[in-house]
Amino acid sequence: MQTIEEIENKIKENLAVMVYFSAPTCNVCHALKPKLLEAIDANFKEFEIVSVDTSIDQEVAAHFSVFTIPTVLIFLDGREFLRKSRHMSVDEVIREIKRPYEIMIS
């Protein structure tokens, strides 16, 4: 469990951050998460990953305006770059991040 401040600091201190919002009761979340983490790890070495359990951290979810799960927030260079909720494919997320990420780290 992380505080809003800890997550905000991670976003400020790291070039690329993914915040993954899910809950233990969400089957889609559990199916998607390992695939997404593997794809992020394989494609982007600089990514910091933060997981938020919305059943415990409602305050964190509300702070980031997350009201549905799973939700993925991608922050590049301290700014929210991508927000995907519910229906998303791993390929779609990777494809949308790839170019800006490569430009940013080159």
From TrEMBL:
**One GO CC annotation:** cytosol
Pfam families, sorted: Thioredoxin
Question: Could you tell me which residue ranges the Thioredoxin domain spans?
Answer: 5-93
Q: Which PROSITE patterns match?
A: GLUTAREDOXIN_2
Q: What InterPro entries does this protein's entry cite?
A: Thioredoxin-like_sf (IPR036249), Thioredoxin_domain (IPR013766)
User: Which GO-annotated molecular functions does the record name?
Assistant: protein-disulfide reductase activity
Q: Which domain of life is it from?
A: Bacteria
- GO biological process assignments: cell redox homeostasis
> What is this protein's name?
Thioredoxin family protein
